[in-house]
Amino acid sequence: MINKLLQIVAPHYCYGCGKVGAVLCPNCKYDIVDESITVCIVCQMPSSVGICSDCHTSYTRAWCVGNREGVLRNILNAYKFERVVDMAMAAASLLDEVLPSLPPDTTIVPVPTVASHIRQRGYDHTLLIARALGKKREIPVELLLSHIGSSVQRGKSKKERFQQAEQAYECRSSASPDATYLLIDDVVTTNATLRSCAAELRRAGAQSVWVAVLARQALDK
Length: 221
Fold this sequence. Notes:
The protein has helices at residues 2-9, 26-33, 70-81, 87-98, 115-121, 125-137, 158-168, 192-203, and strands spanning 61-67, 106-110, 145-147, 169-171, 180-188, 208-216. It is of the alpha/beta class. The strands form 2 sheets. Strands 1-6-5-2 form a 4-stranded parallel β-sheet, sandwiched between helices.
């Protein structure tokens, strides 16, 4: 209710073209998904399933909306750093556009956010995207993974990211070997987080783990 009232008093504008009405207008949304990534999300080598055989990981399929640049960068920054919570729906809509029809036994699993970031923003940004996508696709969302400790990957080297990720996640319960688990995250950089989370789901019993992310970002040197 409060959010709807705020939209009347101070309506949203598109973070792509500035048009008043929504945080992402249909035209800008089309421009983003029209350039969605169709290569390995880790090394960018050609791959029909989003992950190549050389990039060893615990998931077998992956989808990415695009590189973290231009409008997609604006969307992520507004959502994560400017508390534009309505961006969760726009993010879910972008993922919905690039994802194919999913198996009927699919369960969405959000990559857990470190507690300090949730406190800073006032919401768990990955969880909100997962729930919005689950509602749109009529797919259940389960919080199977939890974040251990307070480590953050921003500003860390590739080696440090992998070392942290190996100890940062755990499964809260067992996973069904008959289900397809779709991990949702906002950005993939080194693949450390996704690889660790997928491995945890595997150890918990999952046989099929897929991944969907909004953006790929190269690691700053």
